[in-house]
Write a structure and sequence with these properties.
Blueprint lengths: L3 E6 L6 H4 E6 L9 E9 L4 H6 L11 E2 L3 E9 L11 E5 L7 E5 L3 E3 L6
Antiparallel strand pairs: 1-2, 1-4, 3-5, 3-7, 5-6, 6-8
Length: 118
Amino acid sequence: MPSYKRLEVHTKTTDFRAATCLVEEPELPKASANSVVVKNHYVGINATDVNVTDGAYTGSLPPPFGCGLDAVGVVLDVGEGVTDVKVGDAIAYRKLGAFAEYNEVDMAMVVKVPAPTP
């Protein structure tokens, strides 16, 4: 099973580089019911990400936790009950932890798009 990388907040601060570290996960996520696994092609980077790393948007959530809030990519796997998208479809989504090569995403946060481009 292939591994993948994701960016994780390990300490809360407005210094994004000091707040985050690259983590290698030993295996790809699996799609659970009503979710999909996506291979990210692009992620959205903006000032909101500093509000995540300093705790303004994450409140009492203790580190470590994933960072990044939105991305676009291609569906690799679909969970039970998913009918709106299929493997190979391009999607956009919102999820805390979007800064990752792969992600499991609940379908409530997914929008089908024509192509996995920004």
